[in-house]
Design goal:
Elements lengths: L4 E7 L3 E8 L2 E9 L6 H18 L6 E5 L3 E2 L6 E2 L11 H9 L4 E3 L1 H12 L7 E7 L3 E7 L2 E2 L31 H4 L1 H10 L6 H5 L6 H25 L3 E5 L11 H9 L8 E4 L6 H7 L2
Parallel strand pairs: 1-4, 4-7, 8-11, 11-12
Antiparallel strand pairs: 1-2, 2-3, 5-6, 8-9, 9-10
Bound molecules: zinc ion.
Length: 292
Amino acid sequence: MNNNVRIGIDLGGTKIECVVLENHQEIFRKRIATESAKGAEHIINQIKKIYGEALTYINNADHKLGICSPGSISQKTGLLRNSNTTCLNGLPLSQMLEDKLNHQLLIENDANCFALAEATLGAGQDYECVFGIIMGTGCGGGFVFNKRVRQGPNLISGEWGHSILHTEGLNCYCGKMGCVEKYISGGGIASILKENNINLSANDFFNKSYFNKNEKKIYEKFLDDFGQAVSNVINSFDPDVIILGGGLSNISALYSEGVDKIKLNTFSDSFKTRILPNQLGDSSGVIGAAML
Ligand SMILES: [Zn+2]
């Protein structure tokens, strides 16, 4: 086995997944339950268990190790924050894992891992500058330049979901009003549909073939908001490609009418930006972790 061996571990709320890549080819994959109700120590032991199996598989060969975790490590304190696996919040997760696994590692959040996975082995592999967008429960983003995640001095590069789309708009849990996430994430759309007494999932609603007058208004507003929010990214960074992930990335109108709305708001008389669906699906977290 040669030196280009990478291990990625995706720490999810319900499952922990591990892959081993050798020369960017997947040679091992395993998934176990997180069992997060049993607490932080148990979760860390589960990670050690799956990592141990990967190590056995590669005969303890030299490797790089990356972890994909929800939330982020605070630059101020070194402690994990904002993870939905709440028992891990407030812990020095990076240090604890390095001690337990006895190996150096890098940790990134799921949006950055998504962007990196797609930039290296997915839809963005032929491009230098990639912006990845997750339109899932929330709205996250990651900015990758030359196959490296751009972190920034505040470690918030890509946190585009909490930029303001509508001043004095809907209240967001982050304390601000009118964040992008309130309008074009799965969670945001679910609330908007509920308020309008529409009992359909976001995907079922937006992929419908007929809309009444009120539904058409919601449909148009969503595409307008998408176009405005994405054009703000293009006007700021002008990435080569924007890759969409998360449940809402399956809405086909995003790649036709949605792109037209982006063009309308982009400050340029030409538009060459590629807007593409992801290629790696649910594997982006674990692949991105391996590529850190
Ligand atoms: Zn917000």
